[in-house]
Amino acid sequence: MKTVKIACSLLGIAGVCLGWPGCGNGAASASPEIETDTLIDLGKFPISRDTVFNVVYRNAGTEPLQIDRIETTCGCLSVVSLRPRPLAPGDTASVRLRVHPVVPGHFEQEADLIAEGYDLPVRISVKGFGQNK
Question: Is the domain of 8 the same as that of 50?
C-alpha cells in the first residue's frame, strides 16, 4: 500500500513540475510565437473586383520571428505582399492578401503562415459572402 501511495505522490509531483515554468520538460524555452486573428470575416464583398486586406501579426515570443511564406487553399485567395524579415519580440507586421472569387455566394478559404522554426503553420480562415454588385 505504501508503494502505491509513494508512486501516486511522485506522479503528482512530476505532473505539477512539468507544468511549472522552468521545471522539467514543460519548461518555457526561448522561441518566437505568432499572435494573430485566426478568423478574418470580410462580410459582403463584390466579386467584380479584388478585395485586398491586411492580416496583422505580432511576435509574442522571446526570439526573432520570420514568416518565410504563405500558402493558400485556393487561387482565389493570394498573397499581395509579404516581406520576409526578422521581427523582434513584441513587434508587429502585416501581410497583404487578396480575395477574388469567381462565383457569388459563401466564401471560406485558408491561408497558412509558415514561419522559420515552427513545425506547423498558423492557419488563418478567411470568410465572407461574394456578391455580383
Answer: no
> How far is Cα 55 from Cα 37, in angstroms, rounded to an integer?
8
For residues 17 and 81, state if they share a domain: no
Compute the average pLDDT of residues 16-30.
47
Residue 60 domain boundaries: 34-131
Category of 19 on φ-ψ map: left (φ > 0), alpha (ψ -120 to 50) or beta: alpha
Per-residue pLDDT, 17 = 47
89 phi, psi to nearest 5 deg: -55, 135
Q: How many CB atoms lie within 10 A of CB 107?
A: 20
Residue 81 has pLDDT above 80, yes or no: yes
Q: Which of 12-16, 57-61, 115-119, 129-133 has the highest mean pLDDT?
A: 57-61
In which element (H, E) is residue 4 found?
helix 2-19
Round to whole Å and give the CA distance between 111 and 20: 34
Residue 86: CATH number of its domain? 2.60.40.10
Model's pTM, two decimal places?
0.73
